[in-house]
Amino acid sequence: MNSKEIEHLRQRMSKAVDNLSKEFASVRTGRASPALLDHVKVDYYGTTVPIKQLANVSQQDARTLLINVYDKNALQAVDKAIRLSDLGLTPQVDGMVLRIVIPTLTQERRKELVKVVKKMAEEARVAVRNIRRDELEILEKRAKNKEISEDDLKRFKNEFQKITDSYIQEIDKLLSNKEKEILND
Length: 185
Description:
With 185 residues, the chain is α+β, with helices and mostly antiparallel strands.
């Protein structure tokens, strides 16, 4: 059995899980995390740039983010971008620093966020299954062209299913941890 196909499958599935992990980091819980602002884009002199190119984002404490803007001309643009984002955050200007206090979440908002992360996890599961399907189609074509035997195809299918199950378990574990974080903060 060729481990090249298995390694390729693992790499693709790993990327799907890593992507989910990054998406989860951008979901606002009651904690301050610099990753919250990763998707915020700032209109800076007619160009849309990520906030990290214009400022250093750090965590002051469990509920406060500090944003040190490099260029004082960008301060208002960064402030505006955060206010207009879907995060519902209001920065306070303090000289060249923006301070964001993360409000505690209501129980209703926590339940909404749990639904959002469950949807993200389901999309990641579908992505992992689609990767398995795509890789199996390639192998089935190779078996049809007599490049690999039917026995090898069966072994690959079994191995691919085991790998898929392990990545689905990893997604479920990430989801469980994120749900606990959302509901208990």
